[in-house]
Amino acid sequence: MRPVSRFASRRAFRRTGKGTTGHCSATKPKIRRRTCRYRIGYSPAYRKENEDGIRQDWPRIPLPTSREALEASARLGNAVAAPLDIEGPVKGVTSKAIRPELKVIGPVGKIGGGRLDPGAGDLDLTAGWGHRGKGGVVMPAKGKIVRRDYEPEELEAIGQGAADLGLSDDEAISLLGRSTLDVFLNGNVCWRNVPENVWGFHIGGYPVIKKWLCYREREILGRGLTTDEVREVTGTGRRIAAILLIQKDLDRNYENIKGNTFQWERS
Fold first, then answer.
1. Is the N end or the C end of the chain the one with fewer CB atoms within 10 Å?
2. 20-47 tens-digit pLDDT
3. Cα separation of 174 and 178, whole Å?
4. CA–CA separation, 208 and 200 (whole Å)
């Protein structure tokens, strides 16, 4: 997934028209401009229809004809912006009562069970995710993943969460991916149940989780991972899944705005 990297100019967001507004907020303009961009830029339908502009780093972001529609769209944008802000916890995603479909994503554990022992190397990342190339530059490597079907308890949790989101089980599975992966730290420990679309999620042209791993091989980092770093991978997977699961809402929002787009008067 390639997100939008450049959006409509700041000037455009300040312009207004009778009965409408191009200003995303009078109170928090920077935050609202960002969320207005996210609710469109992360819509799969928008990206497909505007791939040429995105490729040229010059996409066009439509604004709706009413302030009410703009505010509703901005609220949806918050649902994208919050998981992307890795510095802050997200209620139901990484903190508080985590949603059932997200709670089963990315737990870390030993093959065959048992307690993790960092002192015994259980948190050492040695599965071959990265190495130093010419000039010491860190290069990504293959690593180790095992693709598999979802376990019954994972499917049950996804179904429960899907119902809460107004999705069918099949819609949720389609958004997350038809298969899932176990992603290995080393020969004995893995992050379980990382859905294929979570694993394949890109930002800035790079696969998010795999890129993170390639810089943290033990031979590069010089140590094993900390417990917090291991949890960071779990949390990142859940953040990505939360974004994937609202893609239908993002598409509906885009189609609604596309059909009711504010037209700027030419000066």
1. C
2. 333 333 334 444 556 667 778 899 999 9
3. 6
4. 8
